[in-house]
Amino acid sequence: MSSTEKVMGVSPEVSFKTMTKVYLADLAARASIDFLADQVAGQGFYTTFNENYREKSEGKTAKEIVDEFCERVGLDERLQETSRYLVGWGNVFWWVGNKRRIDFLRTVPLEVIKDRGLKFNDDGEVTVLQLDWDRDLKEIPGQELIHLGYNVMTSSPLGVGVLHSLCAPLDIGDGETREPFYQIKGKIHSGMADTIYTFGSPNELWSLPGLSKDKMAEVRAEINKIGRRGSRFVHNPPAGSEAKVTTIVAERMRGMELYVETLNDEFLLGLETPLAKLVTTRGFTEASANAALEIGERRVTALQRFLKRCVERYLFDPVVAAAGLDPAHAQVRLNWGMPESLDYEKLSQILGQITELLKVNPSVIGSQELRKILRDVAKLPLEEAEPEVPSQVLKVEKQLEEKNREQR
């Protein structure tokens, strides 16, 4: 980061406002960003913690404190917003009130950040964020902000999202600059629409013999007022000719399809997801579709890992510490998806095996070991010191006691 940027502030090479306009207006860009973001955070999450850490604050474990925080700030909704900003813009700013205790959690809209309205210190931490909108709040200090920059590739502390590459011009040498891809694509679409509007409706030649030059101009003006697309030409054929209207088929340019397809493929490649191709392209086999989706899943996994660590480091740990507990020992973790449910099939199998095992040697397994097996293998929600256990476990323990009495 240059000394000028430290004093004057930092802006992305492509403004957040421009990237937002492309996201809102380009169907393929928005669909691809939403698809990746939904893959990252759309499945929800749950929390876990170190069950051996039994310290409590006001009767609540570290996990219970974090779960209450997640519900209070609407973390599920915030993560969905965050994932969109990280995928598309490469940056997200959380406004938290106080980074040491996380008073609240709001996502700052990137398009309202003032040009050069971001200032960072030498460690790459944001020190101030200036806003350009019609509200009283014009500036947020750095101690109230958490900045997540994904794919930071330059000396700037700002991340790079997929919209950046689609919106950035390219210097191709000799003083020439290639337009941003979104503009190239937009012009192609506009040209295609103009072609359809011009040639899709019939072009007509009106033959009106015997008209004077002045009368011809008057008639031409009236004909062109007719409310229908297409071009109309009026001429004065030799005297004695038949008055008629002839449809003209224009010679269209051919062979441009490959150019349009190539440019469109480059644009879709920049979106970093196979969604648009899978939906719009004919002839995809199931195998090729699955292969394309597998590539997209790696991108999703990388984003999930990044976001998971950021949530744990910048949100969960301060919340646990503010409650007087030790985040390092509590180890509250964010897990994507839903917790594993009870596996009744495995439970049925393992109970039968344990029963047969106890018939051979009643003392081969203890109650704590039994609970651990049921918890890890069959996903029974058992705590190690839990006083109440399912009836299946009680039945096995009762069989064990009866075997012991018989041996005595």
Describe the structure.
The structure is a single chain. The N and C termini lie far apart (80 Å). Helix 13 (344-360) packs parallel to helix 15. The chain has three domains: 1-178 and 254-339, no CATH class; 181-248, no CATH class; 344-407, no CATH class. The strands form five sheets. A three-stranded antiparallel beta sheet has the order 3-2-7. A three-stranded antiparallel beta sheet has the order 4-5-6. It has a three-stranded mixed beta sheet with strand order 11-10-12, with helices on one face. Helices cover 49% and strands 14% of the residues. It has 408 residues and is of the alpha+beta class. The protein has 15 helices and 13 strands.
Architecture blueprint of SSEs:
Layout: H1 3-8, H2 16-25, H3 27-41, E1 45-48, H4 62-73, H5 75-88, E2 91-95, E3 106-107, E4 113-120, E5 126-131, E6 139-141, E7 145-149, H6 162-167, E8 170-173, E9 176-178, H7 181-200, E10 203-207, H8 213-223, E11 232-235, E12 244-248, H9 257-270, H10 275-280, H11 286-322, H12 327-330, E13 333-336, H13 344-360, H14 367-376, H15 391-407
Parallel strand pairs: 10-11
Antiparallel strand pairs: 1-13, 2-3, 2-7, 4-5, 5-6, 8-9, 10-12
